[in-house]
TrEMBL record:
Belongs to the SMEK family. Residues 709-804 are annotated as: Disordered. PANTHER family: ATP SYNTHASE GAMMA-RELATED (PTHR23318), SERINE_THREONINE-PROTEIN PHOSPHATASE 4 REGULATORY SUBUNIT 3 (PTHR23318:SF0). Residues 736-745 have a biased composition (Polar residues). This is Serine/threonine-protein phosphatase 4 regulatory subunit 3A isoform X3. Residues 5-101 form the PP4R3 EVH1-like domain. It comes from the Eukaryota. The gene is SMEK1. Residues 144-633 form the Serine/threonine-protein phosphatase 4 regulatory subunit 3-like central domain.
Length: 804
C-alpha cells in the first residue's frame, strides 16, 4: 500500500502572486553531498523524477500553516510551499526542519522574516529591536492602539514583532470584547478605531493571525469590526447579508464535516477579500498575499476532497441528466458544477480532472442543460463548456464525432452550441461572442491531432461541413433571399457580422471544404447582398470576407468571381462612398491594391474591362492607373501573339513529339518564347533578349511573317531553314538573330508532324535545354559528346527572361 503520509503537492509563487502547482510527489529529508547539508527532496509520483532539491538553510524562515502546509522563501520573490495530504507527514518534516535549525517544533515559524530595504538595514538591527509592548485593551486606549498598529506597517521588523505580541497576548479576543462593548454603547468613534486596528492586522500579512481570525467562533465578529469604515457615512451590514441573504444550499448532502467547514470558511474569507476590505493600494497589495494564499489552498483542499469522494460527483451527474429532476434543483446543480470547475482551474494536473468529468458524463449533461429555458442556467453551462474546450478541444471533438453516429443533427452538441450563439437574447451579443470563440477553437486545424491511420482534421471537418455548416449559415441565407437584406436591425447585423468573421476564418484555414461550399452553393453572391446594409460594420465584414477569398490567390475562386460578376456590389459600394476617406474606402482600396501587387492577371483583366469606368476618375491613389497599365501590357503581349502563332504551334508540335506535356500547363504555348533557351554558336556573344528585341524586333518579325505566309521561294527557305531536319554539324541559331550560317539542303514543305531520328545514344527524354539565347526548338547535335564535354567545362548562364 502506498504511504500517503509523505504525499505532497509542490507549489511555487509566480510573478502575479498566484500559486502554480508543480506536481504531486513524496517528500523526504536526506543529506545531499552536492549541497553539503540536509535537504528536502520531492520525487514525482508519476515517474520518480526529482521535483525539488532544497537545502535546509540555518537562517531561512520556514512557516507551518493550516497544519498541512509548509511555506518558505529560497531567494528574492521565489516562494515555495509543500501541501501535505496528511497532518502526520507535515509534522514529521517540520520536526526535521526544526532539528536542523535548532528550533522548537512547537513554533509555527522558525525565523523572524526580514523584508527590509537597504535604508532600513542601516536604521534598524533586527536582533537589537526591542519587543513591542501593547497598550491595555481599554476603550480609552483604542486611539493609541490604532496609531501604534498603523505606525509599524512601514517596518518589516516591527510588523513581525507586533504580530508576535498580538498572538502571544491573546489580543484579538480582547479587541473583540471591546467591539461588543462599543456596539452596545453605540460608540461610533470607538468602532471606527477598531476598524482601523483590524485592517492593520490584515496588513501584517501573517498566516497565524489569519487562522485565528478565521476560526468559526470569531470570524463573524471580525467581519462586524470591518463594517464601520470611517470613509462610509453609514455602517455596511455585512453580517446581516451573510446570515440572511447568503444562504448555503446543499445540492447534494455533504457528509464530510471537514469539507463542510472548508466550504463555509472559504466563502466567508473570499467575501472579506472581495467585498469587505477596501481595494488595496499599490503599497498594500503585496501585504495581503498571505490572505490570497489562504483562499487558494482552501480551494485546493475542497476540490481534492470532493474528487476523492466516490459517491458525490456520480450522484450529481445522475441528477443532472435525470428527466425527473425539477428545473430548480437542476439549476442549483449547474451552479455548483460551474463553481467546482472554476476552483479546479488552479490545478496543475487538470488533465486528470477533466478526464474524470468526461467519464462521469459532463458533455451529455451539458446537452441537457443547454436545452433549458432558463438563460442563467444556459450561461452557466456555456461557462463550464468554455473551461473544457479551452483545456481539451480534442476531447470535445471526439465526443461530437461519436454521438454523430447515433443522434440527429438537431441535437448534437456542436449544433446546440451554434444555436445558442444564433439565439443569444443579449442585444450586445456577449454570449454569442464567447461561443463564436469556442467554435473557432473547435474547428481550428492547428490544434487537431494526427494519428497513423487517420487525421482528426479530415474527419472532424468533413463532419462539420456535412452536419453543422447549414446551421451556422442559416441566419445569413434567410436574410438574403431578396436583393436587399430582409432584416437590417442592429442585433441581426451584429450576428451576421460574427458569422462572417467565423466564415473568414474558415476560408483561411479550411481551403478545400469551404471552397467547395462557397462555389457549389453560390454563397458569395448571397453574402454580397449584405453590402446594401445600412450598418457600416456589417458592410466591412463583407469586404473582409471577399478580401480573404481573394487573398487565397486561388484561380477557382477567381473564375467564380469573374463568371458571376461578383465584384459589382463592391464597386457599387465604392462608387456610392464617393471621395469620403473612411474605413470602407480604405478596405476596398487595399483589396484592389493587393490584386495589383500580386499581379492577379485574370482579376486585373476583369476589373479593367468591366469596371474601369468607375475607377478612371480616381486619382488620389495610383492603384487604378497601375492596374490599367498592367492590363495594357498584358494586351500588348496577347496582340503580339498572332504573329508568332504558327511558329509557336510548330514548335509545340515538335516539342510534343519529344516531350510528354502536362495537360495542365495552359500557358506554355503563350510563354514558350520566354521560357526556352538556346546556346550561341562558337565565338558568338550572348546578347540579352531585351536589347536584341529593342534593335531587331521589327525586322525579325517581318522576316518570320514571310516564312509563315510562304510567300518566298525555296531559295529563301534555303537561307532561313527554321523547321527542317538538318544533317549539318552546325546547330541552327535563333531565327530572330541574323547570323551567318552554313547553307542547308533545300527544305521540303512543313509536315503536320515532324519525326526525325535521334542521334545515337540520345533518347527523347534525354534532350535538355541549354543556356544562351532564347530559341524555339532545340536540335540534338551530331557530335553530342563534344557538346556535353563543353557544357561540363563552361559555367551555366543565367536564364534570360523577356519582361515588359
Amino acid at each position: 500500500m502506498v504511504d500517503t503520509r509523505r504525499r505532497v503537492k509542490l507549489y511555487v509563487l509566480n510573478d502575479e502572486r498566484q500559486w502554480d502547482d508543480r506536481g504531486t510527489g513524496h517528500v523526504s529529508s536526506a543529506y545531499v553531498e552536492r549541497l553539503k547539508g540536509m535537504s528536502l527532496l520531492v520525487r514525482a509520483e508519476s515517474d520518480g523524477s526529482l521535483l525539488l532539491e532544497s537545502k535546509i538553510q540555518p537562517d531561512t524562515a520556514y512557516q507551518k500553516q493550516q497544519e498541512t502546509l509548509i511555506v518558505w522563501s529560497e531567494a528574492d520573490n521565489y516562494d515555495l510551499a509543500l501541501s501535505f495530504q496528511e497532518k502526520a507527514g507535515c509534522d514529521e518534516i517540520w520536526e526535521k526542519i526544526c532539528q536542523v535549525q535548532g528550533k522548537d517544533p512547537s513554533v509555527d515559524i522558525t525565523q523572524d522574516i526580514i523584508e527590509e530595504s537597504e535604508e532600513e538595514r542601516f536604521e534598524e538591527i533586527p536582533d537589537a529591536a526591542p519587543p513591542i509592548e501593547l497598550p491595555p485593551c481599554e476603550l480609552s486606549k483604542l486611539e493609541e492602539i490604532s496609531e501604534l498598529f498603523s505606525s509599524v506597517l512601514l517596518s518589516p521588523v516591527r510588523r513581525e514583532k507586533l504580530a508576535i505580541a498580538i498572538e502571544n497576548d491573546n489580543y484579538i479576543k480582547n479587541l473583540l470584547e471591546l467591539f461588543h462593548m462599543c456596539e452596545d454603547l453605540e460608540n461610533l468613534e470607538g468602532l471606527r478605531h477598531i476598524y482601523e486596528i483590524f485592517k492593520s492586522i490584515f496588513l501584517l500579512n501573517k498566516n497565524a493571525l489569519l487562522e485565528l481570525m478565521f476560526s468559526d467562533d470569531i470570524i463573524m465578529d471580525v467581519i462586524g469590526c470591518l463594517e464601520y469604515d470611517p470613509n462610509q457615512p453609514q455602517p455596511i451590514r455585512h453580517r446581516e447579508y451573510l446570515n440572511t441573504k447568503a444562504n448555503f444550499k446543499e445540492v447534494i448532502p455533504i457528509t464530510n464535516i471537514e469539507l463542510l467547514h472548508k466550504i463555509h470558511q472559504t466563502y466567508r474569507v473570499q467575501y472579506i477579500q472581495d467585498v469587505v476590505l477596501p481595494t488595496p493600494s499599490v503599497f498594500e497589495e503585496n501585504m495581503l498575499s498571505t490572505l490570497s494564499s489562504f483562499i487558494f489552498f482552501n480551494k485546493v483542499e475542497i476540490v481534492s476532497m470532493i474528487q476523492d469522494d466516490d459517491k458525490f460527483l456520480p450522484e450529481l451527474f445522475a441528477l443532472l441528466t435525470d428527466e425527473a429532476t425539477d428545473d430548480g434543483k437542476r439549476k442549483e446543480l449547474v451552479f455548483f458544477l460551474k463553481e467546482y470547475c472554476t476552483f479546479a482551474q488552479t490545478f496543475q494536473n487538470r488533465d486528470g480532472f477533466f478526464k474524470m468529468l468526461s467519464n462521469l458524463g459532463i458533455l451529455p449533461a451539458l446537452e441537457v442543460i443547454l436545452a433549458m429555458d432558463d438563460a442563467d442556467v444556459r450561461q452557466a453551462a456555456i461557462d463550464i463548456f468554455a473551461h473544457i474546450v479551452e483545456y481539451s478541444p480534442s476531447m470535445v471533438r471526439e465526443f461530437i464525432l461519436q454521438e454523430a453516429n447515433t443522434q440527429d443533427d438537431e441535437v448534437i452538441l456542436m449544433n446546440l452550441v451554434i444555436e445558442q450563439m444564433i439565439c443569444d437574447p443579449d442585444t450586445e451579443l456577449g454570449g454569442a461572442v464567447q461561443l463564436m470563440g469556442l467554435i473557432r477553437i473547435l474547428i481550428d486545424p492547428e490544434n487537431m491531432l494526427a494519428t497513423v491511420n487517420k487525421t482528426e482534421k479530415t474527419e472532424f471537418l468533413s463532419f462539420f461541413y456535412k452536419h453543422c455548416m447549414h446551421v451556422l449559415t442559416a441566419p445569413l441565407l434567410a436574410n438574403t433571399t431578396d436583393d436587399v437584406p430582409c432584416k437590417d436591425d442592429y442585433q441581426t447585423s451584429q450576428l451576421l457580422s460574427l458569422i462572417l468573421e467565423l466564415l473568414s476564418f474558415c476560408v483561411e484555414h479550411h481551403t478545400y471544404h469551404i471552397k467547395n461550399y462557397i462555389i457549389n452553393k453560390d454563397f458569395l453572391r448571397r453574402v454580397l447582398i449584405l453590402m446594401k446594409s445600412r450598418h457600416t460594420f456589417l458592410v466591412l465584414s463583407v469586404v473582409r470576407f471577399v478580401r480573404r477569398i481573394i487573398g487565397m490567390k486561388d484561380e477557382f475562386y477567381n473564375r467564380y468571381i469573374i463568371k458571376g460578376q461578383l465584384f459589382l456590389p463592391v464597386v457599387n459600394a465604392f462608387q456610392a462612398n464617393g471621395d469620403r476617406y473612411n474605413l470602407l474606402n480604405s478596405a476596398i482600396l487595399e483589396m484592389f491594391e493587393f490584386i495589383r501587387m500580386e499581379d492577379v492577371k485574370s482579376l486585373i483583366t476583369h476589373l479593367i474591362e468591366t469596371h474601369y469606368g468607375v475607377f478612371e476618375k480616381v486619382d488620389y491613389v495610383q492603384t487604378f492607373k497601375v492596374l490599367k497599365l498592367k492590363y495594357e501590357q498584358q494586351q500588348d503581349r496577347l496582340n503580339d501573339k498572332p504573329i508568332l502563332d504558327n511558329s509557336i504551334h510548330q514548335a509545340a508540335i515538335l516539342h510534343n513529339s519529344r516531350f510528354r506535356r502536362d495537360p495542365r500547363s495552359l500557358e506554355e504555348e503563350e510563354e514558350i518564347w520566354f521560357e526556352q533557351e538556346d546556346e550561341p554558336e562558337d565565338g558568338e556573344a550572348i546578347v540579352p533578349v531585351a536589347d536584341m528585341l529593342k534593335n531587331k524586333m521589327e525586322a525579325d518579325l517581318d522576316h518570320i511573317s514571310k516564312i509563315i505566309d510562304g510567300k518566298k521561294g525555296h531559295n529563301d527557305l534555303d537561307n532561313k531553314d527554321v523547321y527542317s531536319n538538318t544533317t549539318s554539324s552546325t546547330r541552327p541559331s535563333n531565327p530572330l538573330v541574323n547570323s551567318n550560317r552554313t547553307s542547308s539542303p533545300p527544305a521540303t514543305p512543313i509536315p503536320t508532324k515532324v519525326a526525325s531520328p535521334p542521334s545515337p545514344g540520345l533518347t527523347p527524354n534525354s534532350i535538355t535545354r541549354k543556356t544562351g539565347i532564347v530559341g524555339l526548338v532545340d536540335y540534338p547535335d551530331e557530335d553530342s559528346d563534344e557538346d556535353e564535354n563543353d557544357d561540363d567545362n563552361s559555367p551555366p548562364s543565367k536564364r534570360v527572361r523577356l519582361t515588359p
